[in-house]
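dumping this here before i forget
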Amino acid sequence: MDLSGRPERALAGLSVCALGAGLVTVPVLDMYEDVTVGGKPIYSTVIENSIGLFLALLLVAGGFWIASRDWEFRYVRRMIVWTWGIAAGFGFVFTWVLGIQIGLQGEYKPIIIALDAILLGSVVAFGVGVFDVRREQGKQRADREQNRAAALFENTADDVAALRVSPERVVTLSTNSVFDDNFDDAAAVFEEVIRAAGMESRTAFIEYIVAGEPFEVEVTLDDRGEQRDFIAQVTPYDETDGNVAELFLVLTDVTEQKQLARERVARSRIEQLHQSASEMANAPDDDEAFDLAMSAAEQSLHFDSAVLCIDDEPVRTSGTDGLLDEAAADRIALDEQPLVVRDGGSSVTRRDDEEILTIPIGGQGLLQASKRGESFEESQIRAGELLTTHLRETLRRLEREQTIREERERMEFLNRILRHDLLNGMNVVRMQGQFLESSVDDDDRERVETIIDRVDSMTDLVNTMRSFMKAVIEGNEHELFAMPLDEELTDAIEDAREAHPTAVFEVDGVFPPVEVLADDLISELFHNLLTNAVEHNDADEPLVRITTETTADSVLVRIADNGPGIPEGMRSRVLEKGEKGAESEGTGLGLYLCEEIISTYDGEMRVNESELGGAEFELELPRADAE
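structure:
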């Protein structure tokens, strides 16, 4: 028997042995006296003292038994108190009776002493009986509570275990069926809970739990080969001598709840990014786009420091003056992949307690962000990659817009040259030609007329180019107005009649008094189509018919002629830039210009076969009063 470390239990057992040894002397001395002094037979004195001798030796054996038990000392101490207390009580009673009989009465009365012994034993027996009844009642109550707890444990969806925890070990008292289905060893699970709680040892844990404070902690456990998240609740229900605690361990599976929470956070990040993307889509310049990108990165990544680099230059920083990981930046610059690269091209590196995320922005730059003491979540990395994608597209848009602005400036410059220098020069040449026409002979007059005709053609071309560039330069950005269709169409027809007196312009019905969304180029649109219907007409008497039709949202204007028409295979091509007929002397820009103009009105132009045998151009113009 190993008594090391348990001296108090050994001393308690020895004290009971000493009591038994002391009481053995009583029957032994009586037997010695009966045989040596009284001359009584040995068998009679052995029979007389056998019960006392047996009980005394039993007490000695009980002392050794107590010393060998692995009992808590408080239970051993209670045994010693009861043993010595009852012994002292009996001793006091018999000493009191003998003292009265011999000292005061001078007479020894064995019968009275025996009756007192019976009486004292009866009282003790009564007390033991009451104690036993109360203990049984307590046991029944405990059993009922245990049954209630067991029923509760079995009916709950949580994993429940009852444990006895000491500095040396953890003992499993009971577990419910849910716990048994999910885990093999309750003690091992509890060790994981202690580590998750940050306790240094079981002793530190017991000192905390003995104070009667239940606690809970989040812990990740291996549930039959699957890593799952639990809320571990530890509730003490019994405490012994301060070194041992009995408690309930309740594990609530929160894996799905945490996943839902992570998904909600991820959705929130995506919604924030969509908002940021919408704002970046309207960013007027690079600086505004950089500010929006850094703000969105801070909301999504929750970084400690970050840097946004474009074309190898930091354009925005937070908590740093430059790159956070130059090696990762060099790999991106050299188009080298790190050992671990994600689908979006980002990589994560660690330096001491810092984690650094590097995300490329196409071939234009990179975003680096760092966290100290924690890692970037997968949803954060995906959000960062989505953010840099939006930023890349924004920078490309701004670059395209800058190119368009530069092209527009060049076209506006060219338009000013056409409008002022070239057109004014053509007017001067024409005026000089007209002057010469009246002062030359007949042989040279034909040459002068040719010069004037060519100048007029070039002037028309310049005017056409001016209209074309206005439509192209302004595009869909110029402002549209409510234009009266009947007035614009009537004026265009009158101008065409004056320019082509040999042609017939027939109006079918009355033009509706409605307004369409257009601008001053609408007159150019009608002029080009009416002129085209006459100039490309090979009939002896060119006929042009103009009809209109209104709908709730638009007005249809049809301009039909009796010319040669347009083959079906050519109808979609005649609206393309530079397309013209084989016999045409024009530039091929007239119909293309019409298509460009009507597209700026959100309208449509279609080419059909005319009932007159030629071509029909159908214009669909949006109404100004359409809802």
